[in-house]
């Protein structure tokens, strides 16, 4: 079982930048091509900006052309939670951090092999850790 990280909005606000807070705690979306990681090609892992949960590896990052960091697979299925999202008159699958509930982005089924999935993430929800 993963130990959940539970904090009040006030605590998250203190810990995060306004944009990180908006994306992760209010299900916001950063503007395409503006985030820190869409064009990052360094080897390493991407952790949840809120709780440090390891979410994605550079090994599964690919060029989606969308302007958001995109991956074809999470580090472990248990590290993310996928939920149906019917906002904005669309049916999408929202992706959250399974440890703290941070909103990360959405997953679509138009990704590359081997999974065919495209985890379309917000840079503002991630913290990159360069492989040493
Ligand atoms: Fe988290």
In total, the number of domains comes to: 1
- Cα end-to-end separation: 29 Å
Class by helix and strand content? alpha+beta
CATH class: Mainly Beta
Assign the CATH architecture.
Beta Complex
* Annotation field: number of helices: 2
Mean pLDDT: 97
Main sheet characteristics: 6 strands, antiparallel
Compute the gyration radius: what is it? 14 Å
Report the bound ligands by name, code or SMILES: fe (iii) ion
Going across the biggest sheet, name each strand in turn.
3-4-8-7-6-5
Spans of 5+ residues with little confidence (pLDDT < 50)?
A: none
Order of helices and strands: HHEEEEEEEEE
Structural shape: globular
CATH superfamily annotation:
Peptide methionine sulfoxide reductase
Strand content: 25-35%
> Helical proportion?
10-25%
Q: Would you give an account of this structure?
A:
This protein is of the alpha+beta class and 132 residues long. It has one domain: Peptide methionine sulfoxide reductase (Metal Binding Protein, Guanine Nucleotide Exchange Factor, Chain A), CATH 2.170.150.20. The protein is built from two helices and nine strands; from the N terminus they run ααβββββββββ. The chain has helices spanning 9-15, 18-26, and strands spanning 44-48, 54-57, 61-62, 70-71, 80-85, 92-97, 103-108, 118-121, 126-130. It has a six-stranded antiparallel sheet. It has a three-stranded antiparallel sheet with strand order 2-1-9, with no helix packed on it. A hairpin with a 5-residue loop joins β6 and β7 (103-108). It is globular, with a radius of gyration of 14 Å. The protein starts with 8 loop residues before the first helix and ends with a strand. The structure holds fe (iii) ion. Residues 48, 50-51, 53, 97, 99-100, 102 line the site of fe (iii) ion. Fe (iii) ion binds at residues 48, 50-51, 53, 97, 99-100, 102.
């Amino acid at each position: 079982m993963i130990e959940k990280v539970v904090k009040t909005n006030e605590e998250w606000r203190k810990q995060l930048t306004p944009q990180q807070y908006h994306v992760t705690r209010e299900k916001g979306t950063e503007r395409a091509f503006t985030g820190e990681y869409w064009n990052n090609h360094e080897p390493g892992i991407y952790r949840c900006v809120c709780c440090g949960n390891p979410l994605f590896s550079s090994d599964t990052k690919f060029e989606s052309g969308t302007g958001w960091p995109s991956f074809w697979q999470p580090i472990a299925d248990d590290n993310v939670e996928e939920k149906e999202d019917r906002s904005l008159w669309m049916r999408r699958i929202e992706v959250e951090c399974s440890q703290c509930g941070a909103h990360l982005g959405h997953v679509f089924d138009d990704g590359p092999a081997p999974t065919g999935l495209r985890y379309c993430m917000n840079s503002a929800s991630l913290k990159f850790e360069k492989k040493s």
